[in-house]
Task: structure prediction
Amino acid sequence: MDGEVKIPDFYVVLVGPKYSGNVGAVARAMMNFDFKSLYLVNPCALDDVCYARAMHAKNILDNAQIFSTFEEATQNLDYLVATSSIQYVKDKKHLREPVMLDDVADKIYEVDGKVGLVFGREDYGLFNNEIAACDIMVRIPTSDSYLSLNLSHAVSLVLYALYSRKEYDVKEKRVIGRVEKEKLYEFFSILLERINYPDHKKENTEIMFRRIMGRAMPSKWEYHTFMGVIRKAIDTIQKNSKK
Result:
């Protein structure tokens, strides 16, 4: 790359925002830190309050893309970062096991593709199925006396952390995309079935595997190597079962 950093395409994804002022403040924060793409899933009306809070970032609101479902908004994004103030309960440990914001910001520029920064509803945050669809979950450390951040404040902190690392010289781009990841998860699921992995543990283990891969950010070479190992294991199990 000769010292030149190729910046991933970042998309701020707001899922079900309820207050127009927050959406406007998010647009302003995006302009502060040079992020342009805003995706809105079932948003409130973008009214005069929204545009007033956006100040000089009205263009971001005008160009925001609106989607009816989370799946529709994220289907063309390669790497999804969920945000939540809730860590985990015992039966959902891997689902809501967080990575600290600074750790994500240090590695995110290794992604080559479209990165979705996913923020949930002001009252309920992200639902479990939405978090499960993401590669990692980031947590912003806050006081135990009041964990939850205002939506626009959370977005501002995440964007600042990423912006402050924008000039880092990334030595290796991570090129595995959404299609490759979904194929990897599909083969891992098949492997669990072939080894008769307990059904009641399967969902949690698949989520754990997704989180491991999300933190690892495997390169294309690593992906093909690992896929080869899983394919070989599946084929060997199938051949032995026919004997």
